[in-house]
Amino acid sequence: MLVHPQFDPVAVSVGPLAVRWYGLMYLIGFALIWAAGRYRIARTPGAVWTAKDLDDALFYGILGTIVGGRLGYVLFYKFADYAAEPWRILYVWEGGMSFHGGMLGVIAAMVWFARSRRQDWLAITDFIAPLIPFALAAGRLGNFINAELWGRPAAVPWAMVFPNVDGVPRHPSQLYEFALEGVLLLVVLWWFSQRPRPRGAVSGAFLLGYGLLRFLVEFTREPDRHLGMLWLGLSMGQWLSAPMIVAGAAAILWAYRSSTHESVNRNS
User: Residue 223 has what DSSP assignment?
Assistant: First the structure.
C-alpha cells in the first residue's frame, strides 16, 4: 500500500505571490505543445502552419481552454450552484475545470482562427490533435500533485491512501490518466499522423482515442460526490466521453469515405 506524499500545492512563492503546481502544469503543457508544434512544422515540408501561425493559434487555444473548461465545469458539473451565484463563475482560483468543456472551447477557437486566416479548420485540428496529449499529461500530474480526482477504493498492490480523503487505499487514477490519456494517446496519435491521412482522420482518431481511454479509466475514478453515478450506472465523465467515441468513429469513417470518393472522381 502506498501513501500519497501530500505535496505542497504552492510550487514557488515570492512574498505575497504564489505559483501553484496546477497553474504551473498548465503552463508546462502549453509550452510542450508549442515546442512539439515547432518540431512538427520544421520536420513537415508544406505543413499547414508556419511557426507564426502556431504562436497565434496557441493564444486562441489558451483562451478556448480556459473559457470552455470553466463554462463546461459550470454547465456539466455544478449548474445549480452557479445559477444561484453566477458571479462565482469568475472565481477561477477556487478551481473547477472540465476537459470536455475545454475541448469544445478549443474546437471553437480553432474554427474561429481558421476562418480569420481563411484556412481549412479540419486541417488545423488534424495538426493540433497529436499535440494535445502533452497538455493532458501535464494536467493529470497536476491533479496528482494536488491529490484531487482520486480513484475508487481498490485492493491492488499499488493502491494509494490519500490522507486528505480518508484512510482507504484507492486507485491512483490520476496516474492512470497520465499514462493513458497522456503517454499512450500521444504515442498512437504521433505515429498515426506521421503518414498522410485523409482530412479529418487524425482529429477523429483523437476524439475516438481519448473518448475510449477516458471512458475506461472512469471505472477506477471516484465519481463526483455531488453527482454520484448517473443513468445506467455511468459517471458524468463517461456520459461526456460517449459522444466523443461516436463522433470520432464517424469522423474517421467520413474522412476515408470522402478520400475514396475524391480519388474515384479524379480518376474517372
Answer: P
Identity of the residue numbered 254 = W
| Rounded Cα–Cα distance for residues 205 and 71 (Å) | 25
Amino acid at 175: L
Q: What are phi and psi of 12, to 5 degrees?
A: -145, 140
pLDDT by position in tens, the chain (length 268): 799 998 888 888 887 787 888 788 888 999 999 999 999 888 876 666 788 888 888 888 888 888 888 888 888 777 777 788 887 777 766 667 787 888 888 888 888 888 888 888 898 899 999 999 999 999 899 889 988 889 999 999 999 999 888 889 999 999 999 999 999 999 999 999 988 899 999 999 999 999 999 999 999 999 887 778 888 989 988 999 999 999 999 999 999 998 765 654 554 4
Cell numbers found for residue 219:
471505472
Residue 215 amino acid letter: F
Query: What backbone torsions phi and psi does residue 147 show, to the nearest 5 degrees?
Result: 55, 45
> Strand order of the sheet with strand 169-170?
2-3, 160-161, 169-170
Q: How far does Cα 196 stand from its chain's mean position?
A: 24
| Furthest C-alpha separation in the chain | 72
- Rounded to whole angstroms, the Cα distance separating 161 from 113 reads 44
DSSP letters spanning 58-124: HHHHHHHHHHHHHHHHHHHT-HHHHHHSGGGGG-GGG----HHHHHHHHHHHHHHHHHHHT--HHHH
